[in-house]
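Justification of resources, computational component.

The compute hours requested in this renewal are based largely on the per-chain cost of generating structure records like the one below. Each record pairs the submitted sequence with a full structure-token output. That output is archived, and it is also reused by downstream analysis tasks.
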Amino acid sequence: MKKKMSIKFIVWFLVLTSLLFINNKQSLGQNQATNKEINIYFFWMDDCPYCAKAKEFLPKLESKYPNIKIKAFEISSHNDNLKVMQIMEAAYGATSRGVPEFFIGAKYHQGFESEKTDGLTIEQMIQKCLAKTCPDPSDETINYVNKLNQQNKFAGPYLIGLILLVILIILIGIISTIIKNKKNKQTDDSEKLDQTK
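The structure output for this chain reads:
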């Protein structure tokens, strides 16, 4: 009886311990999800009134969401920043309509009228990234550039092959024309010989 009691005690102890461990692990996972850093790439210009509105909104956003890190790029006097924006637009499939422009996770947003419209949209993008895993916009862009490089590696040999094929077809055409002309000349020469006989 004592053995049965001690076995039951051990089983219950293991069950309770494992439940506590699982519960603790889940709460740790929730803390890690809410403490993750979200990078926001913000492109703007000095003389842009919509950019000025967005710049006024960003400090409020940072105080409301301490996990975000805003990486701002002024594009009118920094050509390199403009190039970064254009590459990010290509990576995201965005059509450039101007600035301000935001890249958050796997999404982008262009323009800024007010906190109630565009500000709300941007906040929703942040909240989605806080709720689930979102890629960093720089990772999305790097993946896009790597994909382009891979395509170009394959495009080079195909392009060379295509050029060689065109050259080969042209050469075959030239050779067949020369052979045809020689046959026609031989036929003409033999007809002339027949006429002179």
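Residues 9-33 have pLDDT under 50 and may be disordered. The radius of gyration is 35 Å.
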